[in-house]
Amino acid sequence: MSTTSSRDRVLAALEREVPDRLPIFECSLASNVIEALVPGGALEDVVDLYDLDVVCHREAYRYRLVDENKRYFSDEWGLVVRLEENVMPTPVGHPIHAEADLDALVPPDPADPIRLANHRAAVARYRGTKPVVLGMTDAFSIPWKLRGMENFVVDLIESPDFAKRLIATVVDYNRRLVEQAAAVGVDIVRFTDDYGSTTGPFMSPDMWIEFVQPGLRELVDVAHGLGMKVVKHSCGNLHGLVDPILDTGVDALHPVQPFPGQSLSIFKERYGRRVCLIGNVDCIEVLTTGNREAVFADVRRCIDEGAAGGGYMLASSNAFHSGTRPELLAAMVEAARTYDPYRRGP
After folding, report:
1. Bridge pairing between strands 80-84 and 87-93
2. Contact at 8 Å (CB) between 236 and 197?
């Protein structure tokens, strides 16, 4: 049995080395999945039960009730959102309508104790044994939510200086949050802004490079300068964006959703020497309507496509979301141990 810690194992994979066993980097579990697996328990109890290799929490915000009937709340950015169980907050109101609104915007306080409370507790519980991961935004999602996607995309074309100022405001907050994370003892920052849909990126590569890449690069540099590793998450088809994303210096790309032209095998061949790949057990069908045999087959596929030579960690193709079958997490872990290409000895 290996005596290497999960922390060492994950850091080895992020350095594109061959770890002592295949790391499982499952970084998002819906609350109903957690409840089904450990009734009355918490994320950390699932981590311990299945010996997952990372402990991931998102930053926390305070919310103010706006409309009880519609379950609308206002967050600390002034965004009006609909809160639903096991679903990311859905923006329904966008507070930045003009330059004057941006002038008056007061970002949240990154040093508010609520922001990283879960991370402080996780660091105390797992220090030196499992890496603690902060999930947070980077340079795209909050700006578009503050303006609304349609208005924001128009800004990129018609009011680029305004768009860049808005992005810079958000990046400044995120930079200070990264600094707080380092002070708390977080090991890995996972930037979670999605840059595309199933059909392709939300903007052209040239536009992404002009508007988003500088902020992401700044945040990556800050994290690295403070001794933390960086995982870049983005759902969607990233055609034309992968090289610019990797040019920012991220250590890993997650979750490599399976679309034409971006299978895990294609990404391994094209980018495996530049970045660690994380993913991509199918959470659209296999983990939702599949069974143990289907999970074993898909895990085997992922290992065959991504694990050669190291620099790979197993995870779902996005998350164990509310529609997945909770018991299939056990099957995914068992399959990973069964087909582990790195593990040596009994």
Report:
1. antiparallel
2. yes
| Whether the Cβ atoms of residue 190 and residue 250 lie closer than 8 Å to each other | no
- Which residues are 67's β-sheet partners? 72
Cα–Cα distance measured from residue 319 to residue 275, given in angstroms and rounded to the nearest whole number: 21
* Tens digit of each residue's pLDDT (9 = 90 or more) over 87-116: 788 899 999 999 999 999 999 999 999 999
CA terminus-to-terminus distance, the chain: 6
Angle at 16 (CA atoms; ends 12, 22), nearest 5 degrees: 60
User: What SS3 class is residue 323?
Assistant: coil
pLDDT in tens, 20-45: 999 999 999 999 999 999 999 999 99
DSSP codes joined into one string, 295-329: HHHHHHHHHHHH-TTS-EEB-BSS-B-TTS-TTHH
Q: What is the CA radius of gyration of the chain?
A: 20
Q: What is the pLDDT of residues 220-257, one digit of tens each?
A: 999 999 999 999 999 999 999 999 999 999 999 999 99
CA 250 to chain centroid: 12
pLDDT at 64: 96
220/169 Cα distance (integer angstroms): 17
- Reply yes or no on whether the pLDDT at 301 is more than 70: yes
pLDDT number for residue 1: 44
Domains of the chain in start order, with CATH, are 6-338 (3.20.20.210)
pTM exceeds 0.85, yes or no: yes
Q: Find the length of the chain.
A: 346
Q: Are 168 and 212 in contact (CB under 8 A)?
A: no
Q: Look at residues 266, 298, 297, 293 and name the one whose alpha carbon lies nearest to residue 280.
A: 298
Hey, CA dihedral for 299, 301, 307, 312, is it positive or negative?
A: negative
Rounded distance between C-alpha atoms, residue 97 and residue 230, angstroms: 33
